[in-house]
Amino acid sequence: MNPHHESTKLGSMINNHKENGNENKRILSQGFFEIHAKGHLDKSWSNWLEGLEVELLDNGEMLLSGYIRDQAALMGVLNKLYRLNLTLLSVNEIDQN
């Protein structure tokens, strides 16, 4: 996988927080993500991929979706997809509000 040829949009997991007039950044504890990749994995891979739902698309691509607890877990999922030699098409954080 060549990162220069991949279209990746990482949702922001950083929230600005004002405390005593100072603006601090803090990591959000959880976000809902959709990860779009070329290739198929069957639904039995869901547990290994942090419990993400696996949706197979007719065009040979798949959509992984679900809550990811933090940035480390997100990177873990992305690294697993990389090690499986799957092409990452996009990563989006979905606002659930």
**Count of spatially separate domains:** 1
Class, according to the CATH hierarchy? Alpha Beta
Helix content: 10-25%
| Structural class designation | mainly beta
The neighbouring-strand order within the major sheet is 4-5-3-6
Figure out the total of helices.
1
In the predicted model, the low-confidence regions spanning at least 5 consecutive residues are: 1-27
Biggest sheet character: 4 strands, antiparallel
CATH topology: Alpha-Beta Plaits
Task: Tell me the quaternary state.
Answer: single chain
Polypeptide structure, described:
The structure is a single chain. This protein has 97 residues and is mainly beta. It starts with 13 loop residues before the first strand and ends with a strand. The protein is globular, with a radius of gyration of 15 Å. It has one domain: Alpha-Beta Plaits. The model is unreliable at 1-27 (pLDDT under 50). It has a 4-stranded antiparallel sheet with strand order 4-5-3-6, covered by helices on one side. It is built from 1 helix and 6 strands, in the order βββββαβ.
